[in-house]
Amino acid sequence: MRRANRSHNPRPSRLPKGEEPPGRPRLQSTGEGPAVTRAVEAPEEGRAVVTAFTWTQFALCRDGYLSPQDADYLIDYFFRYMHPMYPLVDHKYCNIANRAQFATEEAFLCTTVLAITSRYAWHQASAFSARATEVHGALYRHVQSELQRCLWGSGPERYSEARTLSIIESIMLIVEWRPRSMDMITPPKDIVGDYALEQYGYAAAPTTADVSLESHVRTAWDAFKAVNITSWRLLCTAVNLADEIGLHSAITKLQHTPSQARHARVQEFLVSLVWERSFRLGRRCQLSHPADGSKAIANAPDGQFLNNILESRMELYRLTRLIENTLYPSARQTADLIARGNYQTAVDDFSGLLAAWKTRFDRVKASSPPLAKHLEIMWQGTRAFLYSISLRALLRERSLPPSRLESGNNGNGQGARPPPRMLQMDQSSRQDHHMAEEWLQASESAIGVALELHREGLLRLAPLNVLYHVIAASLAVLKAERLPLRTTTADPRHLLTQLVRALEDSSVDDAHFSARYAACLESMMGCLEEDRRRCVGRAHGGPADDAAAANSSSLDGGGGDPTGIAIPGFETPFGVFEGASHDHLSFLDCNNEDWSRWLSF
After folding, report:
1. Residue 360 to residue 581: CA distance in whole angstroms
2. Looking at the domain assignment, is residue 358 inside a domain?
3. How far apart are CA 510 and CA 117, in angstroms?
4. Which of 61, 235, 240, 440 has the fewest CB atoms within 10 Å, i.e. the most exposed one?
5. Could you name the Gene Ontology cellular component terms for this entry (predicted)?
């Protein structure tokens, strides 16, 4: 087999100033070649130089796919900057003394870590971009090959429990840090075979002249639904493998050993990840969190300083699922809760539980700042999730609900205009508006924490779940501007523009999730700004402006003056985008089981 030429190994480049993670290891030449580098700890931390002996028995290094220096750099990079944000892998491997064990006893998991890290660590190495892409592709193909051997039974007759756990962990890492090829769409011409595979979804997406906000939201949602479906299918395999080795039954024994702690950690992270993807696909998660899993993890002998913050993570997931089961079991049941008016008490109770969780979390978050930022974003997202029921309640208070707006369309683009009515600001309505403000504030705070991660150079290394919460937060801000629901004079466009730039800067390549959503968000912001100008023209302009607005049926869906419900405290009437009818409000309608359409992607 062809050996790798060391003179062509890429030098991992540093991040630009202001984006470099703190404590980044210095790169020192080994004297073996101009481009061969070795990760060396800063002298003040007292770490010895890493030798290549650790990787001499690793198959990919032995066969020339990867140099020992590159492998050491990538593993060190992962455990320094990526692992703290999603501490799934056994924490003992953060210790350099255990790297040889990681490379030999956890070869499949080690290869997966190398594959996903190679996409992020060398994204700035322009002089070696071809080589870096080649290394990343080769590593990922090796992971795919090993996974297929497991699924198709062409590997060992019986995989050990430890090896099966490695496969489960590898799948979860791939779901959270997707390899580049998983984000690429295979062109029909590159598909080998004589069958018309295009009819099964490989054909190019149909183009449309629709440039409304609804069309941009639908385009973004359709694009990322494919990401969630891929993750869902991979996680189904992981769940089956976990069932095969009796993962859940093993946890209930409560034997506080390193093996038991690993079982509990994998089960906890797996259930949480399956629930997240299930929710974003509008499906019910049938897995439940183990009742005693928190005890097993909290008593883990490895990484004891993480025990408290991991326990906080588990509490937050259970609280979020309790909110879902109570307030959002289905669209019909949520509508019934709103109609009866007994949802506000539940919201107040959950708000107190979330505040109590935050108090406990603040006492332990210093043990792992990157994970703490991750959990803070999730906490803000959970608050927004809790208060988002107020959005549906406010829409219900309209003189005509969104479903009537759609049915009232007369077929020529002219939506039926609900009669003007002032919103009755009774106690229930005031509480709904207060919850809507909390919903918006939580969403903006989540974006603010994400921008802090970007300034620290860690947003581009964040797992996919962090980006999902940021996406949901940005959509909430857009929805608040669209209705509008904002009582303050603060302009969110600057915040969203900052987020777009942060997502663009955090993209490791053109196919990265951040780059794709940044483009979608910028398009939605442009559409919203265009509608804002139309609204101002219709509200303050003369007959000519009204005529121009009436002609713009593709965006406004109708003409006339913008009558609607006026909310005290808003300079703009509630019907600011009233002419949009179904096109402007359907993405806010939750009269179906697909909650991901209006809560998040």
Report:
1. 45
2. yes
3. 17
4. 240
5. nucleus
The amino acid sitting at 222 is D
Domain that holds residue 588: 303-597
Contact 551, 543 (CB under 8 A): no
**What's the token pair of residue 236?**
């189904």
Dihedral sign from CA coordinates of 426, 428, 432, 435:
positive
pLDDT in tens, 55-109: 877 888 888 888 888 888 899 999 999 999 999 999 899 988 888 889 888 999 9
Least Cα distance to 550 among 155, 541, 6 occurs for 541
Helices 213-244, 258-280: axis angle to 10 degrees equals: 150
Q: Identify whether the C-beta of residue 388 lies closer than 8 Å to the C-beta of residue 324.
A: no
Angle at which helices 107-121 and 161-176 pack, to 10 degrees? 20
Question: What is the spatial distance between Cα 590 and Cα 587, in angstroms, rounded to a whole number?
Answer: 8
Select from 123, 138, 155 the last residue of a domain.
155
Q: Are 564 and 578 in contact (CB under 8 A)?
A: yes
Instruction: Report the C-alpha gap between 450 and 503 in whole angstroms.
Output: 10
Residue 150 domain-assigned?
yes
> Which H or E run includes 543?
helix 543-551
What whole-number distance in Å separates Cα of residue 309 and Cα of residue 368?
A: 8
The answer to whether residue 288 is domain-embedded is: no
Q: Give the whole-angstrom CA distance, residue 364 versus residue 368.
A: 8
φ, ψ for residue 408, nearest 5 deg:
-80, -5
Q: Which of 510, 571, 460, 397 is nearest to 133 (CA)?
A: 510
The answer to which of 157-161, 205-209, 362-366 has the lowest mean pLDDT is 205-209
Length of the chain: 601
Short-list 176, 172, 158, 170, CA closest to 244? 158
**Residue 408 · residue 440 · CB < 8 Å:** no
Alpha helices in 177-257 (DSSP H): 213-244, 247-251
- The string of pLDDT tens digits covering residues 275-309 is 999 888 888 888 887 765 555 554 444 445 678 89
Tell me if 90 sits within 8 A of 133, measured CB to CB: no
| Residue 286 main-chain phi, psi, to 5 deg | -90, -10
Q: Which of 416, 395, 419, 420 is nearest to 581 (CA)?
A: 416
**Number of folded domains that form the chain:** 2
Chain segment 413-464, per-residue pLDDT in tens: 444 444 443 344 466 678 888 898 999 999 999 999 999 999 999 999 999 9
* Residue of 527, 549, 438 lying closest to 482 (CA atoms): 527
Q: How far apart are CA 114 and CA 182, in angstroms?
A: 16
Q: How many helices and strands, by DSSP H and E, does the chain display?
A: 23, 2
Of 133, 155, 177, the last residue of a domain is 155
Between CA 99 and CA 317 the distance in angstroms is 31
Q: Could you tell me if 108 and 167 are in contact, meaning their C-beta atoms sit under 8 angstroms apart?
A: yes
Backbone angles phi, psi at 365, to 5 degrees: -70, -20
- Per the domain annotation, does 282 fall within a domain? no
Burial zone of 551 (CB within 10 Å; 0-12 exposed, 13-18 middle, 19+ buried): exposed
